[in-house]
Structure formats: structure tokens, C-alpha cells
Amino acid sequence: KFYQNFGIEAEFTSHPLRDVVKTTMAKDDFLKKYNLSKTAKKIFLMPGSRKKEFEIHMPIITKALSKIKLNHDIEPLLLLPKHMANLIAHNNLSGFRVIIGDAYNAMHHSDLGIVASGTATLEAALSGNPFAVIYKTSLINYLILKPLVKVPQIGMVNLIIGHEAMPELIQYKLTPQKLQNIVLKMLNDADYYKGLKAELCNFKDRLGQENAAQKAAEYILGFLNKR
Questions:
Q1: Which residues contact 204 (CB under 8 A, 6 or more apart)?
Q2: What is d(CA 111, CA 74) in angstroms, rounded to the nearest whole number?
Q3: Residue range 53-75: average pLDDT?
Q4: Which residues touch 39 (CB under 8 Å, ≥6 apart)?
Q5: Residue 107 and residue 226: Cα distance in Å, rounded?
Q6: Which of 36, 109, 158, 172 is the most exposed place for a label (fewest CB within 10 A)?
Q7: CA 148 centroid distance within chain
Q8: How far is Cα 165 from Cα 100, in angstroms, rounded to an integer?
């Protein structure tokens, strides 16, 4: 629609992540590989792909989950990209199962998640499992950027759906207690959880079908042949 408003011919050929975000391992094999419980609820954690994001988000996540662990059987799976593997040696991650470079299998075989705003929310959404969108930055950055943001949500998944489909906790709203409340609602409220799953099913349809690159190539060839 944006391009059409300016008289530019455009075609949406689906999102390339539809071809990328897939599980390559059966659930039993995944649980065995990482020595995970068959009964505990799996919570995948994607605190950000930058060191600063990790440093800001992880203490909040840790406090929230430590309270939940008192009454719920959960296994938090900390999903780190390979370039952040060095953080393991410099942080106390004893309460987490750290998984490096295998995020898609982990997301698919988890029950819910906590994801820092960014492309990761699209990847998480394609797994089909509900999650909370979080983000916090320094106060000076927030004060500079806040006036420039003209959208009601910042999670890419919510921007595409058009409303806050996945719950967001941004900046001052991101506290251990509020994050704990959202995770507990996902764990304890079956209707709420089912509603989030339905939102993600609709989201998948919005991104189109698979074979995005092939469809794009076919469209370009068709355009060139008309000229």
C-alpha cells in the first residue's frame, strides 16, 4: 500500500523468514540433546543480540523467573547467537540452559518465551509459541528516541498484526513483577494462552507462503518480459 500511494508497482512475494524459521529436530531428540525434562514448561529467552541489551534485560528476566520457579516447574532456555557465546564465562547463568546457535529448534519445542524487540520477534512468532516482547534502553536514549516513535507498539510482530497481539513491556513498564505477571498468565490461563496461539496463526498467514525468493525471481522475470 505504501508504494501504491506513490504510483509504484509493487508485489508482496512473502517474507523470506517463512523459508528459514523451521525446526530440524523432533521434540524427543531435542530434549535428549540438551538433557531437558519432558514435563517442565520450557521458556525460551532471547534477551537481545547486543551485549548492552543482554546486560540490561537479563537481570530483570532472572528476577522474574526466580519467583516463578518457586511454584512452577519451568526450564528457561537462554538462546544466544554464536557471537555472544563469550558472555557465558562472564555471567552467572547457572539457572539457565544455554543453547547457542540452535534457536529455531528451541523456540519450536518450547511453550512460551521472552523476546527483546527486533527481528527476533518475527522469528519467535513463526515458531507459533506465545511470548512477551520486552525492551529497555538507557534513559538518555529513551528520551531522545521517544518523540520520534509514532506507532502504538514497537514489536515488529505487533506492528504487522496491527495491535498488541503479544504483550509488550517497554522501558519503565519492564519490571520483574510485571514480567512475572505476564509469564504467569501464559502459564496459568489456558484461554489467554490459546488466544495468543490463534494470533500467531493469523500472523503466519500475513507473511505469505514459502518460497519467497523463487516468487520474487518469477515476478521480476515477468516484469522484465513485459518490457
A1: 18, 125, 126, 128
A2: 10
A3: 94
A4: 73
A5: 43
A6: 172
A7: 24
A8: 28
